[in-house]
Amino acid sequence: MPVLSTVKGREALRPRRDPYWQKLATGQYIGLRKMSAGSGGTWLARYRDPDTGKQLHKSLGSFDHLPGARRYDEAKEKAHDVFKHLGAGGSTQKFTVQQACDAYVEHLRAESRAAAAADAEARFNRWVKKSKLATIDVLKLTAPALTSWRQSLAKREVVANPHADEARRRTRSRSASALNRELTALRAALNHAKRSGLVTTDQAWAEALRPVSGADRSRGVYLDRLQRAALVEKARSDLGRLLRGLSLVPLRPGALAALTVDSLDKRLAMLRIGKDKAGADRRIVLPPSTLEFFVEQTKDKLPSAPLFARADGKAWDKDSWKGPVKQAVESAKLPSNVTAYTLRHSVITDLVGAGLDVLTVARLSGTSVLMIERHYGHLRSDRAAAALAGLAL
């Protein structure tokens, strides 16, 4: 009987093409293929389907990165993962991290979430496709591999103004919130693979891809109406119009900046948002005062022109508004971590605080009820507490 559990036992094995097998349980075996005397060999798992009697094999790898004394335990643990996976109806076919990413993008498209699919695909192409992670079998994915990828990504600088001339481009360190967006995309792809039965556990990524807590500082900053008015007043005129728009409707800055003149239906007093990050086309009916402001932005513009344009007529984007917003924040003497996104958070806070139902707030802002409950549910709790206090005898 071959001894696979010790280094000495494995060194005593004669090189051969056929693997040496050791039984772990009924229908479950761990194996070692040793092709040469100086090789540590390649580990395998063998599983017999109790329903069909069919033998299924899965390569586990060599584990050369580990000391010899630890390889058997690691191989045994991976073999048990394979047995659990196959017992749940999984496949022995290799399914890589890149394939998991591709499958997730197709899943989003199948659900008519084209914008979300395009965003995820772009992230995967930038940070996964060309990495060592891409070719790893999801079944062999480890927390250390994901942690290494995460650390490498965190160290990568980003171009702060990618549309500027090469001589004027600046780089900056990646923010925690930006890192979280990349982690969230990959985690979603791997979770989709798990839901599809391609892997049975999320142990490898549950902690390694956990978001950085407290990264989205702008969501924690609230500006009341007077502060928002001060920010609009201190901003240069073209930016002030964009900021005022963000103070009137609970849109993401990018979604408002992407609107064109024909996004506004003056007759129906309706703003057509189209497909933004939320992935679903939606429309917002505007009250008279808000409609009047939006109509003013359409004057002397072609239907395809940006509804909110910069002084040069071009559409706003994050790189063009970031610096001017910072200057306006300083001039208005507001907290330094106020951003354009702070206005969205502040508007949603006011809507929830005013008692508007969560479903309507979610639809207006283009997000999920779960997200509203998670970040703004405490406001409803405060109102509930006040209402209960009014019942006191």
Provide the descriptors you would attach to this structure in a database record:
393 residues, alpha+beta, Double Stranded RNA Binding Domain, DNA polymerase, domain 1, three-stranded antiparallel beta sheet, 15 helices, elongated
Question: What is the CATH topology of the largest domain?
Answer: hpI Integrase, Chain A
| Average pLDDT for all residues | 85
Count of spatially separate domains: 3
- Straight-line distance between termini: 82 Å
For the biggest sheet, the summary is: 4 strands, antiparallel
Can you tell me the CATH superfamily of the largest domain? Intergrase catalytic core
**The CATH architecture of the largest domain:** Orthogonal Bundle
SSE arrangement, N to C: HEEEEHHHHEEHHHHHEEEHHHHH
Unreliable spans: none
